[in-house]
Specification:
single chain; about 220 residues; alpha/beta; Rossmann fold; two-stranded antiparallel ribbon; about 35% helix; globular
């Protein structure tokens, strides 16, 4: 398996296994998009799919296209990092186009976001040409603005992750604390910038092929 993903806590739900297997039935390279609000569990779901398929898939998160922290500070957007205009959307779209058309013998390299560094790391994820499934996950895969509009048409299937919202916010707070924010600062960010981004992406669930609600999340 290409791409660094945390081991899943539970196996992928059977209906989603069936969808993935159907997606790969013809043997061609496919791109599965997993969208949702901050803290929805997108990376966890991607890890579950990856565990199901092993070396037959690669995970390429959208977060690798965060603008660098120094650039966000330069342009005055660091206080709302994670908003759609704090990403290199054009770069992400260009990568998806390359991933859709694998060339025999070639490896496509994708960036990875490192929370400990607060920056992306170029060339961190290798996607060999013979990997049949690429999973890409992020908040804005189905957003029609801020340069993300082409993304939906570059996905063979799109899932929107919709957990219980109280659980989602609790996860966000815990994650921010884990990466250095005080409890008060973690709560403020989760209910401030993260909440604004969650409201922005909520309507995009209508563009997904399937909404993955609590019944399918483990």
């Amino acid at each position: 398996m290409s791409g660094r993903v945390a081991p899943p806590a539970a196996p992928l739900a059977a209906p989603l296994v069936a969808r993935v297997r159907a997606l790969l039935a013809d043997g061609r390279r496919r791109v599965l998009g997993i969208a949702g609000a901050p803290g929805a569990g997108k990376s966890t779901l991607a890890a579950q799919v990856a565990a199901e398929l092993g070396d037959a898939c690669a995970v390429v998160p959208m977060d690798g296209f965060h603008l660098a922290q120094t650039e966000l500070e330069r342009i005055g957007r660091a206080d709302r990092k994670g908003a759609p205009d704090t990403f290199d959307a054009d770069g992400y779209v260009a990568l998806l186009r390359r991933l859709r058309e694998p060339r025999p013998g070639h490896v496509v390299y994708a960036p990875e976001y490192r929370r400990d560094l607060r920056n992306g790391v170029a060339g961190a994820i290798a996607v060999p040409h013979d990997v049949p499934l690429v999973i890409t996950e992020g908040n804005y895969l189905l957003l029609g603005t801020h340069g993300f509009a082409p993304v939906a048409d570059l996905l063979d299937e799109a899932w929107f992750v919709a957990p219980d919202d109280d659980l989602r916010v609790a996860r966000l707070v815990a994650r921010h604390e884990r990466f250095g924010k005080s409890p008060a600062a973690a709560l403020a960010w989760s209910t401030g910038p993260d909440a604004a981004n969650a409201r922005l992406v909520a309507p995009t669930a209508a563009r997904a092929d399937v909404v993955v609600g609590p019944a399918l999340l483990r």
